[in-house]
Write a structure and sequence with these properties.
Elements: H1 3-11, E1 14-24, E2 29-32, E3 39-46, E4 49-52, E5 60-62, E6 67-70, E7 76-79, E8 87-88, E9 99-100, E10 110-119, H2 125-128, E11 135-137, H3 145-160, H4 166-189, H5 194-200, H6 202-213, H7 221-228, H8 232-243, H9 247-265, H10 270-276, H11 282-293, H12 297-304
Parallel strand pairs: 1-9, 2-8
Antiparallel strand pairs: 1-10, 2-7, 3-6, 3-10, 4-5, 4-7, 6-11
Helix pairs in contact: 3-4, 5-8, 7-8, 9-12
Length: 306
């Protein structure tokens, strides 16, 4: 995986909400309606399930440790056997509607942990624009097996002795499963997906490396196009294909994401962070930060201390 891809993954911010842990005894078939703003997930903690995305090809079987993520919130179904009739399941909208059945060991039942992911505005469009409607991470894959097995083992332990504190742990562990799954998908599709191929292009990498390594430089479409070796128009089109953003929007987003990391560290003043992020004027930095993140740098810094 290239340094650029690792940088993009490092920019990704995912927040998970686990809302259901349930035991399922055959027969079962559940349909989940579309919800565009939430990336729902299902993790098999015990047993197995089939998942199906209407119009997405054949159903996929998930075994223990596997996770199915629906990044774009598409409607989908899960069931114990292919051909099973499904009923529309409810979608909890708050903590008061969540529930967690105790995990029963030595049972033939299937236990699923379900919830949703929310990706922050700082997550690179180069990642979100490329994700398929259904993304599956398999614990049986050699590259992921140890990591997935460890995390699912910890999830199983929390569900076996569920308490109020368990939900915080479940949320953090499912966030890690999400990132591992996306990382694995990016590795596997680097030579197949148009966005990933464009990111891997040596000339695109040269431009991204320059922006990442020197965010304070006075970047423009002109000097970036010269670095790429094409006209402004051709470069801008190729760059947007790779990242999902215009060159200057990417520069701004990268600077703001760097500033977020520095604000979370809490060791620098806002004036220092503005300068290190490429802004000579703190007021301009404050405006750009609020436009991208939705809050002032000061408010973000205070929240990071909580």
């Amino acid at each position: 995986m290239t340094d650029v891809i690792l940088d993009l993954l490092n920019m990704m911010r995912v927040r998970s909400t686990a809302y259901i842990g349930k035991n399922l005894s055959s027969p079962w078939g559940v349909h989940i309606d579309e919800h565009p703003n939430l990336a729902r997930f299902h993790i098999v903690v015990a047993g197995h399930t089939w998942v199906d995305l209407p119009g997405g090809g054949s159903p996929e079987k998930l075994n223990v440790g596997d996770i199915a993520i629906f990044p774009n919130g598409k409607a989908h179904s899960y069931f114990d056997e292919i051909g099973r009739e499904t009923k529309t399941g409810s979608f909890p909208t708050g903590a008061e509607n969540s529930y967690f059945h105790p995990l029963v060991h030595d049972s033939s039942d299937t236990h699923l942990l379900c919830g949703y992911f929310e990706m922050s505005n700082g997550t690179p469009p180069a990642i979100t624009a490329s994700l398929p409607d259904m993304l599956i991470g398999r614990a049986s894959d050699t590259a992921l097996s140890k990591k997935f097995s460890m995390l699912v083992g910890l999830i199983s332990a929390e569900l076996s002795e569920f308490s109020e504190q368990s939900l915080v742990v479940l949320n953090r562990m499912t966030e890690m499963l999400c990132i591992y799954t996306i990382q694995d998908w990016m590795d596997r599709t680097m030579d197949e997906d148009d966005h990933m191929m464009a990111l891997a292009d040596p000339k695109t990498k040269l431009v991204l490396d320059a922006i990442h390594n020197d965010p304070t430089r006075h970047w423009s479409v002109n000097n970036l196009a010269q670095l790429y070796g094409q006209s402004r128009t051709a470069f801008a089109a190729r760059f947007k294909q790779a990242t999902g953003m215009s060159p200057m929007n990417y520069v701004r987003r990268w600077r703001i994401n760097l500033s977020c990391r520095m604000l979370e560290d809490n060791s620098l003043s806002i004036d220092e962070i503005a300068f290190k992020s490429g802004y000579a004027d703190t007021n301009a930095f404050n405006r750009a930060f609020k436009r991208e993140i939705g809050s002032s740098p000061g408010a973000y810094k205070r929240l990071a201390r909580v």
